Amino acid sequence: MTPRQRNFWAWGWADRFPDDDARRALAARAGAALGGGDLALGALPRLDDARVPEPRVSVPTELSAFASADRFERVTHTYGRAYRDVLRGYRGDFSAAPDVVLRPRDEAEIVRAIRWCEQENVALVPFGGGTSVVGGVEATSGDRYRGVASLDLGAFDRVLEIDAKSRAAKIQAGARGPVLEEQLAPHGLSLRFYPQSFEHATLGGWIATRAGGHFATRLTHIDDLVESIRMVTPRGVIESRRLPASGAGPSPDRALLGSEGILGIITEAWVRVQARPRWRSSASVFFDDLPAAANAARAVVQSGEFPANCRALDAREAMMNGVPTDGGAVLVLGFESADRDTASSMANALSVGLASGGRCPNGAKHRDAGERGGDPSAETWREAFLGAPYLQSALVTLGVIADTFETGCTWDRFDELHAAVLEATTEAMQRCCGAGFVTCRLTHVYPDGVAPYFTFVAPARQGGELEQWGEIKRAASDALLAHGGTITHHHAVGRMHRPWYDRQRPELFAEALRAMKRTLDPHGIMNPGVLVDP
Ligand SMILES: Cc1cc2nc3c(=O)[nH]c(=O)nc-3n(C[C@H](O)[C@H](O)[C@H](O)COP(=O)(O)OP(=O)(O)OC[C@H]3O[C@@H](n4cnc5c(N)ncnc54)[C@H](O)[C@@H]3O)c2cc1C
């Protein structure tokens, strides 16, 4: 049986890319939303037409057992899956292709790969699932390096050990979401970390980027699930001690989480796992607008209830995802538990939501293990959530710019930030595209703040897409920083967010990070250009 293939230029599996009928339906919807007629379907790219430069370095004999300069390998390791990656892939532009793709099978082979890169002055880019949306896996090495090697962790895909008593598991870094869940399931356990990229992203990628997952409150980032990390650096192995918590000085895990491949290669980690939930409750509460729904979400978490799902969608975001509302915004609440009925937590959260001015005409739905059918808004939301990245790639073929960005801010800044970002993004789209709209949802909620997530959609000018996108992205990112937000709550920094990250982080901290990189990576080969300059 031939293995299922990833799409070489777009999101996801090649066999799940929307067919022409689906693209026509999308063209009609997107055209109407942008105030024009139906959009034309662009031809889909062919792998044979991809423009890939000749490799600058050849596959070394000492690595030949796990190195390749195969064209498909190089193409599929060129980009992540940001809008600009998908666009360049669609246009057949693979000029940033790595020269070599390495697929080590154990740590000894990783060490050999590092030594070769150091000797030959080749930049080394760790590659997990390649779902980065910030240019994290695309090394444009310039003149400083002789070439670029992409190091794919795909062979590191096993759950190695389970400590049922401490409810933790040792998992290899290259395990993709479904692969690790499949291995945990027979033990009745689950990581329950479901970012939208779950199907293709890896544990190592999540740790390297401090990804944000399923839980909208409390255990929001992978940070909260990590117990210890093992990393192979050019100077040797760092492995932190497995502990539930520790006050012994600065935490080594904290230094490695979010290191985005610049310090070394994460090979495995002990993570906290959960018992599979048995009880679930869900409900939708309607509000006039997003700020009102945000107020209610804040009141819920400040009341001491921490729903697993606490996502607020503005009216347009709800409409785009087919989530039912009564015309305004919706707050989707969900509780889950392995050991207790969630009905009373839901009742508390609902009463807070209603006291904050919400309307809940359908009440809450409760489910026990194995039962299907929860709240319709929550169900529709989940389906739309997983299908959306395919549609986002398909929009590129219709001449539409569609991208997302996210942030985090304290509650005292939220209303101002939300209004300012909508205004700046809309104004930039009007200026460079002549039309466009932006929507917002809240992905994660804290007692002291919130993570707003924005989606913008605008008509592209053929050949000018990257400039148009760049202008919108700049306006939005400037507004985030000017109004108290971070350049990213969970998408990471990569190469794309560097200009804003450089403004946001304290300069002395950057100096300390550069010193740490010099210590662990003295030849400066590890993912150059990400987070700090080598
Ligand atoms: C459609 C879509 C939806 C997304 N949804 C979410 C979401 O819900 N939440 C979220 O947080 N993010 C999301 N992302 C962003 C992306 O999935 C995350 O950043 C994810 O953590 C990347 O994992 P990966 O395995 O694909 O890593 P890659 O993209 O391969 O790499 C990301 C970065 O980590 C480094 N890296 C990867 N593996 C290792 C390793 N083992 N050791 C050291 N460095 C490594 C790479 O060099 C790179 O800098 C989404 C992206 C897409 C395209």
Describe the fold and architecture.
This protein is an alpha+beta fold and 534 residues long. 33% of the residues lie in helices and 20% in strands. The chain has helices at residues 20-33, 71-76, 83-90, 107-120, 177-184, 203-209, 252-256, 290-302, 315-320, 343-355, 376-396, 411-433, 465-482, 498-504, 507-520, and strands at 67-68, 100-102, 122-127, 147-152, 159-163, 168-172, 189-190, 226-233, 236-239, 265-272, 274-275, 279-287, 309-313, 329-337, 365-367, 400-406, 409-410, 437-446, 449-459. The strands form four sheets. Strands 12, 13, 14, 15, 16, 17, 18 and 19 form an eight-stranded antiparallel sheet that branches. A five-stranded antiparallel sheet has the order 5-6-10-8-9. Helix 8 packs across helix 10 and helix 12 (411-433) runs antiparallel to helix 13 (465-482). The chain starts with 19 loop residues before the first helix and ends in a 14-residue tail after the last helix. Flavin-adenine dinucleotide is lined by residues 11, 80-81, 125-133, 136-137, 153, 173, 195-197, 201-202, 204-206, 208-209, 211-212, 260-261, 265-266, 389, 490-492, 494, 527, 530.
Question: In short, what is this structure?
Answer:
This protein is α+β, with helices and mostly antiparallel strands. The protein is 33% helix and 20% strand.
Structural descriptors:
binds flavin-adenine dinucleotide; 534 residues; globular; 15 helices
Secondary structure tally: strands: 19
Straight-line N-to-C gap: 44 Å
Mean of pLDDT:
95
- The low-pLDDT segments are none
What percentage of residues falls in helices of 4 or more residues?
Answer: 25-40%
Main sheet record: 8 strands, antiparallel
Identify the bound ligands. Answer: flavin-adenine dinucleotide
Radius of gyration: 23 Å
Helix count from the secondary structure assignment: 15
Structural class: alpha+beta
Q: Please, what is the oligomeric state?
A: single chain
